[in-house]
């Protein structure tokens, strides 16, 4: 995986995604009985069923920006819908994540983000819906 493949046009780090983690481990996620989807990141050529036609990605590519914070119209209605979507509470952290990315660059940001989704106690990976570490049961989440 290249660093760029895991940077979402929306500003998410795909390494925190359960589909991405399952794919990297050699599997995928079942989305309906008998159907499994895989993904290697927003800017890769192997995309999940949920992210293959993302309106933010299409828009950002048309505008020639790599992530929404680089767009003069941020936060537009589309990005607001994404950031405020209560089904995905981790989206509200994305403006802060993009600001950090702008500040330190992709390489350092990816290194920080990859550490962000590893349990400090046991080293097990967790995803952005996790409240507890799947390895040791410690409280994880924002940190
Ligand atoms: S499913 Fe979406 S959020 Fe997850 S890794 Fe793929 S592009 Fe990123
Ligand atoms: S118009 Fe909105 S969705 Fe499109 S690139 Fe700009 S901020 Fe992102
Ligand atoms: Zn743990």
Could you please describe the fold and organization of this structure?
31% of the residues lie in helices and 5% in strands. By secondary structure, it is mostly helical. The two termini are 25 Å apart. The structure holds iron/sulfur cluster (2 copies) and zinc ion.
Can you give me a brief rundown of this structure?
By secondary structure, this protein is mainly α. It has 5 helices and 2 strands. It is globular.
Please describe the structure with a list of short key phrases separated by commas or semicolons.
143 residues; mainly alpha; two-stranded antiparallel ribbon; 5 helices; binds iron/sulfur cluster; binds zinc ion
**Overall pLDDT:** 95
Q: In this structure, how is the largest beta sheet organized?
A: 2 strands, antiparallel
- Helical residue percent band: 25-40%
Oligomer kind: single chain
Number of helical regions: 5
Rg is: 15 Å
Class derived from helix and strand content: mainly alpha
Q: β content, as a range?
A: under 5%
Layout of helices and strands:
Blueprint lengths: L17 H7 L4 E4 L2 E3 L17 H9 L13 H7 L10 H11 L1 H11 L27
Antiparallel strand pairs: 1-2
Helix pairs in contact: 4-5
């Amino acid at each position: 995986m290249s660093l760029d493949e895991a940077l979402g046009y929306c500003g998410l780090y795909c390494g925190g995604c359960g589909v991405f983690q399952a794919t990297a481990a050699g599997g995928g996620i079942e989305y309906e009985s008998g159907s499994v989807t895989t993904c290697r990141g927003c800017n890769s050529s192997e995309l999940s069923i949920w992210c293959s036609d993302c309106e933010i990605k299409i828009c950002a590519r048309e505008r020639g920006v790599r992530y929404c914070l680089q767009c003069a119209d941020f936060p537009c209605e589309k990005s607001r819908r994404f950031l405020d979507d209560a089904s995905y509470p981790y989206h509200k952290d994305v403006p802060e994540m993009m600001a950090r990315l702008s500040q330190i660059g992709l390489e350092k940001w990816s290194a920080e983000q990859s550490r962000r989704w590893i349990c400090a106690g046991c080293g097990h990976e967790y995803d952005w819906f996790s409240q507890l570490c799947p390895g040791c049961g410690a409280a994880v989440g924002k940190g």
